[in-house]
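Box 3.1 A note on notation
Throughout this textbook, protein chains are presented in two layers. The first layer is the amino acid sequence; the second is a token string describing backbone geometry. Keep the layers aligned when reading.
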Amino acid sequence: MMIYWRRRTRPAILLLLLAVVVAGVTVYTASRLVYTASLDSRALNVGLTAPINSLEPAEMSSHEEHLVGAMVYEGLIYFDDKDKRVRPLLAESWKYQDDGLKIVFKLAEARFSNGKKLEAADIKTCWEKSLAGSKEVSYKSMFLCIAGSAEFLQGKSPEISGLQASKANTLEITLTSPNSAFIYMLTHPVFWVYDSQEKASPAPGTGPFILHQNSDQRLSFLQNEHYHRGAAPIKAIEVKIFKDPAQALAEFKGGQLDYLDKVSPQDLPVVRNDQELRPLLVEKPLYTLYGIGFNLKKKPFNDNYLLRRAINYAIDRQAINQDVLGETYVPLKGVLPEGMMGHNQDMPGYIYDPEKARQLLEQAGYPGGKGLSPLMLAFNQDEGHQRVAETVAQQLSEVGIPVQLAPLTWEYYKKQLAGYNLGLFRLEWAADYPDSDSILYSLFHSANIGSTNYMAYNNHQVDQMLEAARAAMDDGARARLLQKAEQIIIDDAPCIWLFQTASAKLVQSNVDNLNVGILDTVDWSKVVLKKPVISQTVNQPQEGKV
């Protein structure tokens, strides 16, 4: 009986085992298919460590607001990082007329997210609304390149006369003077297009996503299925805002975030040394300067370029970057960051040379620092700024230059800076558009004294070169003029140039095509969540592209 029973049950056992295996494979396959299917509809999870106060293009002021705003809005053109050129977006094409005084844009076929067809008149009205509503001086200065903008701001005209919708698909922009930098200005978010006739806030845009829900801690975006460049690969984006950067990093490590927009300088060394996180780290130099400005209206800096040069040579930028900033930035010898038109890689600039600093200090009338009152270095209160300021003060003291630190609240700091009440001050400038003009003209042209020229720098020769660079339509001629202007500015030393800043992000391995631009931007219409490949090996599934 026992032998008979075994013989009869062996096939049954085999069948049972086979059924279990098949069931296991079926369950695994089903679970992977469910995962794959859910990946088609699940949101891309994005983590930010700063608040979103506004998504109105004219009111956005922070990197985070611009980053999120790019999900909803876009402009006529965009900047291609690869070849450093502007490319069509809402504009299908454009051409210059009247010796560069006019630019005529032909629009592509596009609709706002509410279904309304985009026409040139919509761009005119929304730009007029943005100019009237903007509080940022640098934003307004870009608009002022357009003829009639000043009269519009002053209430002398109900419209910007230099903006004309000659046809439904044709926008004509007349400038106050030929300006080769203006085309780059149009990449700035203040020129993003929205339906200004809508009362909704924020107004509908033409971008790849639509704002679905909005709160202080979380924003939800849904795919714009009618996006003119084709529906985005991902269906939705969930943006979570963290008050604590450590919590944001912990959630990324736990797999709850696909993208973390900022790794703090304090956490960066840890991330670099983490075997799991290091391959997910994305670091990119930006068109942003970090330094210290001299108020050329105040003693002892006015009329004493030798003192300003001495201070520049006394700073060890490499040491600050390594010891204080965890090698997160790129030390600068001059004004323009790497990659910008006119940047001169072979320019000597300012290096760490304490002996030369002492010699220049003596020539400036302060041998060994004798007779020099303590310099008051002002900065907005922040642990990182504090540590940089302390190190700068220490390095200057080594050549005999006394420094006192003045940490200020952000609002008071901005007010004092705008009033030219600070003698020595922290200066950080992010290029508004991807062109050297955004740094050289904004910070150093005398026309911007009282607005963005915080040093009150005034050099007639530099003014002429920067104006000639704007008028030049040939890139080679522009680059040569910009290089000459930069060299004069460096010799005059209105600043202590310290660093070109860089971004540090974390991107999970299941995310593809998330490319960080030179202005810290992302094209959300191209981001992909990669799907898993169903492996034939049940116990060792493999991840990859489908």
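Residues 2-41 form the longest helix (40 residues). Residues 373 and 402 are 7 Å apart (CA to CA).
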